[in-house]
Specification:
CATH superfamily of the largest domain in chain B: Beta-grasp domain
Order of helices and strands of chain A: EHEHEEEHHHHHHEEEEEEEEEHHH
Shape of chain A: globular
Number of strands of chain B: 5
Strand order of the largest sheet of chain B: 2-1-5-3-4
Radius of gyration of chain A: 19 Å
CATH class of the largest domain in chain A: Alpha Beta
Structural class of chain B: alpha+beta
Structural class of chain A: alpha+beta
Oligomer: heterodimer
Number of domains of chain A: 3
CATH architecture of the largest domain in chain B: Roll
Largest sheet of chain B: 5 strands, mixed
CATH class of the largest domain in chain B: Alpha Beta
Number of strands of chain A: 14
Order of helices and strands of chain B: EEHEEEHHHH
Number of helices of chain B: 5
Distance between the termini of chain B: 52 Å
């Protein structure tokens, strides 16, 4: 029995925002993080369930893909549009998050809201330049994910809920991607993960994102490595140079899963493997078959 | 503490439960004498508390009972019909796919959801489908054989 004094199940966003304005309340959706990790329950007395707000949509609007806060890992992993987007890196991240039972409940927006450095989907979302739409009593604001994460379990989200995630589709046809997760077991959280997107024109990388998970207090965009990739041909040599920078940029910790040194070394491995996929030098996984 | 009234369908029967805000679905099941789903890890890592919620396999330990309002729930107790075991249960028994048996309801409910979607599974698909179900007796070979057998039996 969890120490929860009241359960609220609002049916409108306005009602949800009003409920969340009060201290001691937090958002629940899939519940797979909130209910099992005591860290999220510190100071929480009441929960506000957002599952009846009609946010389980995935749709295209204004040249962007909108992923509602109710969309589960499974739904996202199996969505044809998301599988086709930049080598399906977001679908693949969602497909390797936890076990099938977890993916049937956990939401991608919840994965973002929890703001764990080891989360499986934020690296892909960051590589896709995603934004989060936050709703609170003051109204709505759109925050690029690149400035959303603050530290382990901490983000710029105040007394707000994530209504949806937005992914720009402008470069849909040109965007190539790669994703690589190193974990202990099939359902374990990442020891290290990497997501990348590249635009390659006339044999030269003209735009790059390279994002590392579980190796810093936040999902980490390795901007210096991205700069080193840009303007270069998508070759093994270029990727190895970028991986060297990644190893310098990461700030991993040691814990019961892996040592900092191991994570640092593996961050280079994961980065190169993700980059090879994006360049067509290695096959894409299609993890969603098991989602 | 205020009780919450939830109306749901459990194993085909409409029920109204009075639950507490902090009560998990698993705790509510146990309180209503449905003790097949097991509390093992309590952190969503082992799938021993697996049940079918609106056709999907989920962990009842990391969901609030209050969130089940309006749901259609199937538990291990609802699988047998008219005193006859479900083919998946038969297959697990015949293959000896249980050692201490504590994780078995979770394995069976996960298998139930999986076979609905993949009636002709390969061994690889079964292994991936059961990857989240943890058996600390470490009997992972026979459950796979049992799922293959169950798939055959359900075709017949």
């Amino acid at each position: 029995m969890l120490k929860i004094a009241a359960y609220h199940s609002p049916t409108t966003l306005a009602e949800a925002a009003t409920l969340l304005a009060e201290e001691g309340r937090t958002v629940i959706a899939g519940g797979t993080d909130l209910l099992v990790n005591p860290r999220y329950m510190v100071g929480v007395r009441e929960v506000v369930d957002i599952r009846k707000l009609g946010l389980d949509y995935i749709r295209e609007e204004n040249g962007e893909l909108y992923i509602g806060a109710g969309a589960t890992m499974r739904t996202v992993a199996l969505h044809p549009k998301i599988q086709a987007l930049a080598g399906g890196i977001l679908a693949r991240g969602a497909a390797v998050c936890g076990s099938p039972n977890i993916r049937n409940m956990a939401t991608v927006a919840g994965n973002v809201a929890s703001a764990l450095p080891s989360a499986d989907t934020p690296p892909s979302l960051l590589a896709l330049d995603a934004q989060a739409v936050l709703v609170g009593i003051q109204g709505e604001r759109v925050v690029p994910l690149n400035s959303f994460f603050v530290g382990p379990g901490k983000s710029v989200r105040e007394r707000e809920l994530i209504r949806e995630l937005r992914i720009p589709l402008a470069n849909l046809d040109r965007l190539r991607g790669g994703f690589y997760k190193i974990g202990r077991t099939a359902e374990d959280i990442s020891l290290v993960n990497a997501a990348t997107t590249l635009i390659i024109e006339d044999g030269i990388i003209t735009a790059a994102r390279l994002v590392m998970g579980a190796v810093a207090p936040i999902p980490l965009r390795t901007v210096r490595a991205e700069e080193a990739l840009t303007g270069q041909p998508p070759t093994e040599e270029t990727f190895r140079r970028a991986a060297g920078i990644v190893r310098e940029e990461v700030r991993p910790i040691s814990d019961h899963r892996a040592s900092a040194d191991y994570r640092r070394r593996m961050s280079g491995v994961a980065a190169v493997r993700a980059l090879r996929q994006a360049a067509g030098l290695a096959p894409h996984g299609e993890e969603w078959h098991h989602a | 503490m205020p009780e919450i009234e939830v109306k749901l369908k459990v194993n085909g029967r409409a029920v109204t439960w009075r639950v507490l805000p902090g009560e998990t679905l698993l705790e509510a099941l146990h309180a209503h004498h449905l003790r097949g789903a097991k509390l093992i890890c309590g952190t969503g890592d082992c799938c021993g508390c697996g049940v079918i919620l609106n056709g999907r396999s989920i962990n009842s330990c990391c969901m609030l009972a209050a969130q089940a309002d309006g749901a259609d729930l199937l538990t291990i107790e609802g699988l047998a019909q008219d005193g006859k075991l479900h083919p998946i249960q038969e297959a697990f028994a015949e293959e000896g796919a249980a050692q201490c048996g504590y994780c078995t309801p979770g394995f069976i409910m996960r298998t139930y959801a999986f076979l609905q979607e993949h009636p002709h599974p390969t061994e690889d698909e079964i292994q991936a489908a059961l990857a989240g179900n943890i058996c600390r007796c470490t009997g992972y070979v026979k459950p796979v054989a049992a799922v293959l057998r169950a798939a055959e039996m359900m075709q017949a």
